[in-house]
Every structure is written in structure tokens, then in C-alpha cells.
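# step 3/5: fold
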Amino acid sequence: MPRLQVVRDPSLDDPVATLPGVSDKTEAKLGRLGIATIRDLLLFFPRRYEDFSTITPIAFVRPGVKTTVRGRIYEIGAHQTKYKRMALTEAVLGDDSGTTLRVVWFNQPWLVKSLQKGDEIFVAGEADLNGGLVMKNPDHEKVSLRPTNVARLVPVYRETEGLTSKWLRPKIQAVLRLADQLDEFLPSELLTRRELMGRAEAVRQVHYPASAARLDRAKERLAFEEMFVLQVAAQMAKRARQVRSAPVVPFDEPTARGFVAALPFKLTNAQRVAAWQILQDLARPMPMNRLLEGDVGSGKTVVAAMAMHHAAHAGFQSVLLAPTEILARQHADVIQSILGPFQIDVGLLVGSTPAAARRPMLASLAEGQLPVLVGTHALIEEGVQFKDLALSVVDEQHRFGVGQRLAVRQKTERTPHFLSMTATPIPRTLGLTLFGDLDISILDEMPPGRRPVKTGLVPPEKRADAYTFIRKQVEAGRQVFVICPLIQESDKLGVRSATQELEKLQRDVFPELASRIALLHGRLKSAEKESVMAAFKRGDVAILVSTSVVEVGIDIPNATVMMIEGADRFGLAQLHQFRGRVGRGSEESWCLLFTDAEDPQSLKRLQAVVTNKSGFDLAEIDLNLRGWGDLAGYRQHGKDFKMANLLDVALISDAQSEAVRLLERDPTLAGELGLRLQLSAYRQVFALD
């Protein structure tokens, strides 16, 4: 007896390959868009919409205006042009307005089989005047009650080679019925009170809206849920931190005044405010969790050193974790020069520290005799223990995994105060969003004497002039940075492009300087990196070619030119950071953005760097133009924002107040199982465990 086969309804977690018409090749293309399951396909929201919802009688069609027409096919046929042998499919449409419209499709000869004389179809596109009205290559579809590509608000999706919105639309429309399987994780009380659309309906409407008003409501619901989940995670992290105890470092005014008086320069007002906020946090019994944000050269290390000085004066220890040896050594040098006069020792622990120096340093640390330790990932190793750690500082924390950042905090029984420093400018509103569990201090002033860096675009025809200018700078005794982008994704460190640039500069551009051009990249051994940087610092190296992933934050006051190859491949904030590497001495400095880009969007972005000197302004422009990137390492944990506008202050505020309201009622989310599952995406980001 034959076995009965039960055909079940697809599940959201089924692979997308189980859908009809999805081959292995298509599955790979969908994978490039981040679509692996039916759920991913359903939650792959449109980037924008074409409004083809208004049907225009042919008699009222105007040239150059996007239009949707409903007409009957009077004639249809296909032929090849004599020139270039191109296949043309031509049709004549008519409607009740008594006028006809000629329609032409290029290289689609199969249309004569799918469309017949007498069929009623929609066509959507722009008409031209060419011996009468002609619509070329329009979207088209036979008239039905549920049009997909025309006669409605038509979704346009992010595409990849070989996979268009036209292919995606029917596939997504076919799985919309499965939206009812999506969990509704917003609290029912909140849904009712804020009159939000249900999740399943919002997903259906965002793909195929019944009207512009329904689309607005769907977007509002989906944007709110993204921001709400983030804010719940942030508030839970904040509450968990506030119940832990931290060492109390009492505020001592004479100590603070003595530190400031001993500095060989005057603090900016922004530095004074930030230092005051940090010292007040250190005096509380709950752990500080503060972000110190400021442009390259705004003086973050001095503010951190002031906090370390206060901790040492009270008998506690401090640690600073830097992402690279070069940066760790720079921090150690600066902090030693500031704290040395107060007889406060500063240790340096990096991967290349020899065992003979490491053993006594670790013993001194464990006994509490070494008050300040600066280092790299080497600080996280098991043998590194503090006697009484009060302050943990992490520079550019997004360069470390969450586990590494936690390991630094867990080097002592009590939770140390935590200060994160970043030169990556983050728009102020975005700070509220991404760092709801952090307090933020901003250094938005530059120390007196810092000259603004002149910035210019260098198109291909100006390249020779730029090289002449660079040669004159070197002849005048100045030094130059050259930054290279990735050429291909497989070369994660950009080593290939940097090596090619080195060879080109030595052989073709500056052959007379070949011996004074050096290369720095992430695959060099520590000793080689140190040797190259030491030669650059001494002035033996005139031109340093470097990859973007190597932190070249070492202070070279004699460097006056920052040359950036393929500048259009970098984010604005990154370009601004590179620019901050020059202009540190008394000489005038320049940042030259080399680009072969021709598209208006790329040139508009680069022009923003030329005209804007503030990193915060550039970060906001970049966010609007390119999206939010990977700030704070969220994307590496699979969390992305599809609907929420991260600059929408009202949305952030509403979501934050609703998160606080919910947690006051249900601190552990015991009654919100669906919401707790959603928080898993943020478990790593906020260390909710």
C-alpha cells in the first residue's frame, strides 16, 4: 500500500532553497543578501518604493513623467534591428481615451509568447516623444486583482548580481501568508496604548502596502520595535551594573588642582568638564560606565591620566587596554611623562615584552606596587592579576570583542570603574541610541595651537601636480603618510594594495627617495613594525605607506601630508581620523584625497570632508548618506537596523521611556518570553549575562 505523504505548510526557519524556483545558484545569490531562511526573506524589507498606483489614461500621458497605463494590446510583434542585431519587441496599446501608446522592449523576444493580441496589461515607466508617444522597457504585468510590479506602490529591494527586485517580488509575495508565524513580542498593553499595528500585518504592509497611510503605520511599528528592543537591552545592562559595587575613589580637590597645575599646557574647557564628570563617577560606590569621545588630538589620554592619577593617589590601580602595540607604547609614553613627576610608575605589557621583564612586572602588579599598567591583548592573559584595580580604560573599544573587554574588568574581585575612549566620532543622537547603558563625555574642542588641516580632492588629472607638491614637502624636510584601501575582500588587511603602492612610489613616482619610503601593515612582526615606526619617528623614513587597519596613531609632529589612495572606499569618520594624524606640529598641513570616482554620490561624500572640519558633523553626514556601518560592533552580532532612523530623537526618547516603564513593572521580563528571546541579539553587545 503506498505511503501517504503529508505536505506541511513551510516553516519560517526552513531554508529558502525549499521554495519553488530557488536553485543552488539562486540560493548562493540570496546568501549574498543575507537571506538563508524563509524568515530572512520575509524580513528582507524594501529600500524604497516606486509609486505606480495612479492609473493614467493614455490621452493624459506626458513625456518624461513616470506613469502607469492600463491598456489592451492591439498589435504585438518581434524583430531584429539591422544595427547591432538587437531584438526588439513592439506593441501598440489602446484604452477608452481613444489614444494609442507604442511600447518597446529591448532584448526580450520571449514576450511575444507570453503576451497576446487582446490581452489587457499594465505598463509603468516614462514615455518619450519619438514620432508619437513611446514607452521604452517599461515594467509590465497582465491585469489582475493583485498586481505585483505595477499599478500600486511597488517595493524596490537591495539587489545583487543576477537577482533583481522583479525576481524577488513574487517570491516574497508568496510567503507573506506565513507572516502569522512571526512572534508578537511587544507587550500587549503597549501595543494597545500606542495604537501600533500588529507585527504580522506590519510585515505584510511594508512589502505590499494597501495605501501610503498603511505603509506609514507599518514603518512606524517596525521602527519602534527595533528601537524598543535595543533600549530594553541597554536599560537592563544599566540596572545590572548599578547593583554591583565598585571601589570608591574619593574626590580630592587639592590632588586634582595639583595635577592640573603641573601640566605644561592648559586644559580645554571640554577636558575640564569631562575630567570632573569622571572624577565624580569614581567617587560613587557603583561602577562607572562612561564613553569619552573626541576627535584625534583632542586630548583624551590626558583626561584618562588625570583619573589614573586620582586613583593612584587613593591607593588604587589603573589599567589601559589599547588595540595595537604601537598605540599602547604611545599611551605609555604620554602617561609616563604626565604621571612621572608625581612618582607614579607606569608599566607596559605587550606581546613582545620579554619574559625577564614580564615576571617582576606581574609580581609588582599582584602586590599592588605598580599603580598603572598599559598594554595590549597581553593584559587579558591569566597570569595578569591586580591587587586593587579601581579603573579600567579601553581605547577604541569597538576594536575588541565583548569577551576581551569583560576580561579586563574581571581582573579584580570588585567591579572596576570602566572608561571607554574613542576617536571615532558618533553623532550625538546616535550616542543616545547605541549607548543607552553608557554615560557620555565629549571633547569637542582642540587644544590651542592645533592648526586646521587643509583638505583637497585629487582627481586623476591632478595626480602629477600632487606628487610634485609632496616631493617639495619632503625636500623641505617634512614627512608624509600614504594610506591604502582594500583592493578585494579576500585581502582583509589591504596588504596587497599597500605593497603595490610602495613599489609604484619607489619605482615610478619618487625613485630618488626609494630608500626613504617604508611599508607598514598588519602582517609584519611586532619587531618589524617597531623598527619601521622608530625610523619614521627619527625622520629616516620620509614617506610611510600603510594599510588602513594598522593604527598609525603615533604622534609625528613633522608629518605635514596625509595622502589617501582610493579615498571613496573609506567612511567619512575614518577619513577624518586619518586627517587628524597630521597638523600636530607648528607647520601647515594637508590631507589629499586621491580618487578615481565619478559617481555624484561618492564625490558628494568626499566634498563633505573637504568642507567640514568637525568629526561629529561628518559622522552625521556619513550616517545619512551610507547608513550606520558597524558602530559599537553591533553588526558582528547579527543585529542590524532596517527601519529605525537612528537620528530620530523622538523615536529614541519614546522607546527609552517605554523600556524604563516596562522594566519598572517587570524587571526580569518574566511575563514577556517573546521579548526575552529578541534580546538574545544584544546579549553579547551589552554582556547581559
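# step 4/5: annotate
Confidence is low (pLDDT under 50) at residues 1-6, 629-639.
# step 5/5: archive (pending)
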